[in-house]
Amino acid sequence: MLPSYYEFINPVKIVSGNKAVDNIPYELNQLGVKRPMIVTDQGVVMAGLLKVVENAIADSELAIGAVYDTTPPDSSLEVVKEIAGIYRSNRCDSFIAIGGGSSMDTAKGVNIAITENSDDLSRFIGAEMLKNRLQPFVAIPTTAGTGSEVTSVAVISDTENNVKMPFTSHYLLPNVAILDPRMTLTLPPKLTAATAMDAMTHAIESFINLQKNPMSDAYATAAIKIIRENVVNAVKNGKDADTRLALANAATMAGIAFSNSMVGLVHSLGHATGGICHVPHGIAMSIFLPFGMEYNLEKARGVIGELLLPLGGSELFACTPKTSRAEAAIKIVRKLQTDLYSFCGLPMTLKDAGVPRNKLEQIAQAVMDDGALTFNPEAVNQADALRVLKMAYE
Ligand SMILES: [Fe+2]
To answer: Which residues are within 5 Å of ligand 1 (an ion), measured at CB?
Structure first.
């Protein structure tokens, strides 16, 4: 049944293919800019990926206005201020963000500071607080996971006050997302698995949560099928460009899905576990995903059952009775977990991920403050969260 009302937006131009990065000069020309600032991190530099982008620009009429290549894993207000100063003094006119979530979020934060000509980002915290179109922004993901290249969200840490500042605005959607298999070929197996499971969780949560709609469903189911078909091969044969490009596309599709339909309990658990015990986001997603699906079985049995089609294929879907499809879908996610554990050691339990048991109460408490719970089909209280955490522990 269709929702009585919904909105869906994705104005991001997707440029996908082998050597797609070489199209940057054309894309920036189209956007009418000439001095992009590159925002990236040392991991990208060490993997030789910054060079790929610099080479793409070298023979063009563009000039790289500045390069900031030391973005930390957690974006912060201080870093945003520092980069904004460099952007202004070098008279840059646009952004190229290369990396995972942090480089993208940081560059988005800088874009707010530049456009609004203010380093006080606190005025823009929350939903749709931006009133002006931002500077042109090209996103080049180097992990197939976060989906930041197509989301309207940025999270910047205020380290002084120890809080995360969330910004949501359609102006934060990049103009162009470039998916080039060269940018993920060197991603190590475990990181490949973890980021793919983050994308899988974006797709599955957006499909089962309360804000789902037919547009996001289409992106979510397409993403799930591609991830299911490619993730193990990407872990085993990292240099397979076709597989890498497939996963990059799936992560972007999952990003489009959850940017519109939001996520749920699995992300709430992951945010809290990451905040308190520093478990990497993708690993937390992989651990919690089947438990999150199980938790929602009663309220969302039908839609979870529908996931058997993209997860298990048409034959399995057709020969599984409707009443058993939800459990069968969860079983496939658990099998995927086991496979990824055996191929690259992706942790399957909180204990494996280094979470001390005595932190579970504190994590459960933090879950209750997470906004993603709003869209979860089943209501969640602190005791429920603790119960799921205990099940995921070992
Ligand atoms: Fe995520």
So the answer is: 198
CA of 197 to the centre of ligand 1 (A): 9
- Report how far ligand 1's centroid is from the alpha carbon of 282 (Å): 7
pLDDT in tens, 159-182: 887 778 889 999 999 999 999 999
Report pLDDT digits (tens) over 245-268: 999 999 999 999 999 999 999 999
pTM for this model (two decimals): 0.96
The topology under which CATH files domain 189-391 is Dehydroquinate synthase-like, alpha domain (1.20.1090)
- Per-residue pLDDT band at 144 (split at 50, 70, 90): confident
- The residue whose two tokens read 């870093």 is 79
Cα 191 from Cα 283, distance rounded (Å): 9
pLDDT at 164: 81
How much distance in Å is there from the Cα of 203 to the middle of ligand 1? 10
Joined together, the tokens standing for residue 63 give: 């000039």
CB-based burial, 180-210: b 16+ in 10 Å, e otherwise: bbbbbbbbebbbbbbbbbbbbbbbbbbbbbe
Alpha-helical segments (H) within the chain: 24-30, 42-46, 49-58, 77-89, 101-115, 189-208, 214-236, 241-261, 265-277, 281-295, 297-306, 308-312, 314-319, 325-344, 360-367, 382-391
* Main-chain dihedrals φ then ψ at residue 228, nearest 5 degrees: -55, -40
Residue range(s) in the chain whose domain bears CATH number 1.20.1090.10: 189-391
Round to whole Å and give the CA distance between 346 and 280.
Answer: 11
CA of 112 to the centre of ligand 1 (A): 23
Which candidate, 265, 266, 227, places its Cα nearest to that of 248? 227
Domain with CATH 3.40.50.1970 in the chain: 13-183
Our measurement of the distance from residue 4's CA atom to the centroid of its chain's CA atoms, rounded to an integer in Å, reads: 28
The CA 148 to ligand 1 mean position distance, Å, reads: 10
Query: Does 13-183 carry CATH code 3.40.50.1970?
Result: yes
CA 165 to ligand 1 centroid distance, Å: 16
CA of 118 to the centre of ligand 1 (A): 29
How many Å lie between the centroid of ligand 1 and the Cα of residue 267? 6
